[in-house]
Amino acid sequence: MKVLLLGGTGVIGTYLLQLLKEQDIEVFVTSRRCIKSHENLHYIQGNAKDLVFLHECLQIHKWDAIVDFMNYNTQSFKERVDMLLNRTKQYVFLSSARVYANSERLITEASPRLLEVSTDVNFLKTDGYALTKARQEDILKKTGKRNWTIIRPYITCDNNKLDLGVWHKEVWLYRALHNKTIILPIDICHVTTTLTHGLDVAKGIVALIGNSQAYGDAFHITTNSSITWQEVLDIYIEILKNSLGKKPKILLVEIARFSILFSENQKYTIVYDRVWDRRFDNSKIAQFVDIGQFYESKYFIKNALEEFLQKIQFKNINYELMAKLDKMANETMSLKKIPGTTDKITYLLAMYCPPILKFRRKLSSKF
User: What is the C-alpha to C-alpha distance for residues 233 and 176, in angstroms, rounded to an integer?
Assistant: First the structure.
């Protein structure tokens, strides 16, 4: 079997390619970085969003399965959906459980999606993440083909991806380790969420690859255990207290004040997802994988943070956002801790001259 992963170097894709390798499946992975191939794992360097590059990848083989991790806008997806479906026996589309509307019950794959039930006209005019994924699901369903499978993961974590509310570790954990205040909306603390280990999502996908019963259908893959964001925060605080010798500083603010940190589109992630309870009925995927063996959230996030602290390695830090958070917390950051002149200037402008930063960004976008 030959499987192509488009953009499969993230938290789910990394585990997926390992599981496929263990089954002696020949795996091809697209990546913008140059990564050395070995044994039955082949890396193809290039941007999978580029139509020419994608066409070349699709011609390498008539694929047994294509697993697509790319985030397209709706128009881009329309331009390539037929090409993708025609070059594989099974196209696995990574959607998101964020497509679901608010629900007081356990969410099933048949639960209403925001796209169908939202009455927010301004929201529906956007191509925001939850709407984009739902629209692309609909495009798949309207092709007249059935050699596709939709996967709807929710929040996935491991020692490289540790979320807290709306923040990735490059925000909340970076601040904690630099003796800065972690800022959260008070409305989110008692919300119940579902955090699933990336390995468990990958196990579910493997169970569906090559499975004709999964054709023309959608599955969310999450753990059965749920946890409040306050419980997540308490776990993180306890570990950091042991590591740093003191508790990290926490500031809880009203959501209206918190929302000024974000653009209009970014705010939808909060009001149409993170402030809602998210608990899932996993009986559908449980037909194909033993979800009873999935990690319990409260245990794996503890282990994941402890592992990360043994080898601290952050990805890109958004210093404009850091400046906004510092202003809200009445703090400042030493320029010695900010690498590079560009990041230093960005921080200073965001901290003291936001209009100039806005003008600078607008000017650069014209060239």
Answer: 12
